[in-house]
Amino acid sequence: MIAIIDYQMGNLRSVQKAFEKAGFEATITSDPQTVAASDKIVLPGVGAFEDAIGELHRRDLVSPIKDVIQAEKPFLGICLGLQLLFDISYEGGEFEGLGIIPGEVKRFNVRKGFKVPHMGWNQANIVREAPILEGIEFGTHFYFVHSYYVVPKNDHVIAVTSDYDGEFCAMIWQNNLFATQFHPEKSQAAGIQVLNNFGSL
């Protein structure tokens, strides 16, 4: 079973429908036991980092998330679900994340003419051939909506980069852990392929 974690921060139904289109049943849940018992776990998210990490703690979801990752179950973070995996975010202050991936979450500092948030289609420059990228060509376009981006302490976790007045990390991969800054559920055929690959792990 694929569990989509519900912490009131994201377009959960869109992610669920995208998995259904890829041929997989996915359950939306905020129950820690259901998350812990699931075969694959998805942490989506849209919104503010402070609110998101607060909701994860309030719903007792932090330990199950860490446990399933440590148990090497396939895990997919999407957008804010990527950023939450890091040590610290500077969105609206300084807030501690889940601390699963060493690194920081920083705001775009771009030249005049570049708008923040970074919104729309952008190229994925594949650095490492992660299993969920099977069938995805270098330069494939995915859909982004974000004002902050992750800066991993160790570059070896970076699987995809993109460029917005400078290169930034668009996806990480570490063992069973995958997380994208782009939205597969909003990225049409390429996004469905990514979700299909994840569901097939």
Give your account of this protein's structure.
- The longest helix is centred in the C-terminal third of the chain and has 12 residues, at 188-199.
- Strand 1 (2-5), helix 1 (12-22) and strand 2 form a beta-alpha-beta unit.
- This protein has helices at residues 12-22, 32-37, 49-58, 62-70, 80-83, 188-199; strands at residues 2-5, 26-29, 40-43, 75-78, 86-89, 95-96, 101-107, 118-123, 125-126, 141-146, 148-152, 158-163, 167-174, 177-180.
- The strands form three sheets. The protein has an eight-stranded mixed β-sheet, sandwiched between helices. A four-stranded mixed β-sheet has the order 6-5-7-11, with helices on one face. Strands 8-10 form a two-stranded antiparallel sheet.
- It is α/β, with parallel strands linked by helices and 201 residues long.
- The chain has a single domain (2-199), classed as 3-Layer(aba) Sandwich (Rossmann fold).
Lay out the secondary structure:
Elements: E1 2-5, H1 12-22, E2 26-29, H2 32-37, E3 40-43, H3 49-58, H4 62-70, E4 75-78, H5 80-83, E5 86-89, E6 95-96, E7 101-107, E8 118-123, E9 125-126, E10 141-146, E11 148-152, E12 158-163, E13 167-174, E14 177-180, H6 188-199
Parallel strand pairs: 1-2, 1-3, 3-4, 4-14, 5-7
Antiparallel strand pairs: 5-6, 7-11, 8-10, 9-12, 12-13, 13-14
